[in-house]
């Protein structure tokens, strides 16, 4: 069972179509659940303190949705850099143990420290930052590739 | 002037829409040219020798299209790993020198050695491999982000 918890809605239709494409692919092999949480409004002049608060509110919402039987994997630019082999092994292990996986992508201001600390793994795809909306497709594609 | 040379057509409509979205964004600031080359048919049972030949044929087509005034940047998983800073600096340098940039994404069998050797830079976004079609969006997004 694959669970994906993300913050913010996809604005562009091409992203929504792409998301559906990959969800369909994944669901051919495995139960998949996508939980899209509403993002908090970010004031243009938000202070660091306000940003931390937004991260915390979004973080609480995320943590309340995590399936507790699953391994929790937070996508984090400072996380462990993934190669194809490491990524495949992660899925292979979970398949063997029949354990579910919950993937988390934060909103535009990133993940709270609490989410990062509670995660079982923190994973980085790239040392570049991608918009969290496009990143959603990148993660879905890599999940589809790993289970098909 | 940004030139992008890619091998193979985008099959999914969401990818074509996404591509157009980013091309529109980029063209607000800079001339941009996308050259989509037809990919060679890859037999399912292709030997390593046949794959090398396909890469060479596609490589020749790519090299014939490169704008010779431009810096040639090949996207290559074994290339130099990019951070946001290195990526921005690359564009900043070219802006200062008023020099164009040609980005190259190979087809499903990758780039020929000749293309890699002729390139001025070989750049890697991730140690994971993404399908070259989705990767096109990732590159377009990073170009748009760097020049806007």
From TrEMBL, chains A, B:
<keyword id="KW-0698">rRNA processing</keyword>
<dbReference type="GO" id="GO:0032259">
    <property type="term" value="P:methylation"/>
</dbReference>
<dbReference type="InterPro" id="IPR003742">
    <property type="entry name" value="RlmH-like"/>
</dbReference>
<keyword id="KW-0808">Transferase</keyword>
<comment type="similarity">
    <text>Belongs to the RNA methyltransferase RlmH family.</text>
</comment>
<dbReference type="Pfam" id="PF02590">
    <property type="entry name" value="SPOUT_MTase"/>
</dbReference>
<protein>
    <submittedName>
        <fullName>rRNA large subunit m3Psi methyltransferase RlmH</fullName>
    </submittedName>
</protein>
<dbReference type="InterPro" id="IPR029026">
    <property type="entry name" value="tRNA_m1G_MTases_N"/>
</dbReference>
<dbReference type="GO" id="GO:0006364">
    <property type="term" value="P:rRNA processing"/>
</dbReference>
<keyword id="KW-0949">S-adenosyl-L-methionine</keyword>
<dbReference type="GO" id="GO:0008168">
    <property type="term" value="F:methyltransferase activity"/>
</dbReference>
<keyword id="KW-0489">Methyltransferase</keyword>
<dbReference type="InterPro" id="IPR029028">
    <property type="entry name" value="Alpha/beta_knot_MTases"/>
</dbReference>
